[in-house]
Amino acid sequence: VLEFDMQHSKEVVDLKRFDVSPTLTGFIDGQSVPENASAEIVKCIAPTDETELTSLYEADLDEVDGAVNAARRAFESGPWPRMSIDERNRILRQISDKIVEHAEELAYLESINVGLPIRNVKVAHIPRAARNFAFFTEVARQA
């Protein structure tokens, strides 16, 4: 449980409310990367009180190459390059809508991750993320 002091009012965040694995692996080409026993484990630490939030297996060169190759394949032969602007805009708008829909949870997670007061993240960072996706739907229409 983490406590945040937002201008003298305490807000308690129960990390157990979020489904975060104790140690995370990568996600490449639509699949979770298997745990690599020889990989270095990097701890994710909350900057407010140095609580360990989770840890990550550091990617090795093969995993990085696999991620780059998967991204290249997706770019060259995946559905995105063949979609119309309207289809792409629909997807970007859905992402924006999902950010708004899950704003509360995202705000808590981001505030824990970067150490900012939840209030700041709720009123600035999360709405800005949603607006960025909405903005690019407009830019794509003008291109």
Overview in brief:
The chain is of the alpha+beta class and 143 residues long. The chain has four helices and seven strands; from the N terminus they run βββββββαααα. It has two domains: 80 residues, no CATH class; 61 residues.
Number of helices: 4
* Biggest beta sheet attributes: 3 strands, mixed
Query: From the helix content, strand content and strand pairing, which structural class follows?
Result: alpha+beta
In total, the number of domains comes to 2
Query: What Rg do the Cα atoms give?
Result: 19 Å
- Give me the side-by-side strand order of the main sheet: 3-7-6
**What is the overall silhouette?**
flat
Oligomer: single chain
Please tell me the overall pLDDT: 85
Range of strand content: 15-25%
Straight-line distance between termini: 47 Å
Pfam families: Aldedh
Domain Aldehyde dehydrogenase: 38-142
GO molecular function, one term: oxidoreductase activity
InterPro entries: Ald_DH/histidinol_DH, Ald_DH_N, Aldehyde_DH_dom
What would you say this structure looks like, in words?
By secondary structure, the protein is of the alpha+beta class. It folds into 2 domains: 1-80, no CATH class; 83-143. The protein contains 4 helices and 7 strands. The strands form 3 sheets. Strands 3-7-6 form a 3-stranded mixed beta sheet, with no helix packed on it. β1 and β2 (9-13) form a beta hairpin. α2 (85-101) packs antiparallel against α4 and α3 (103-114) crosses α4 (118-142). The radius of gyration is 19 Å and the shape is flat.
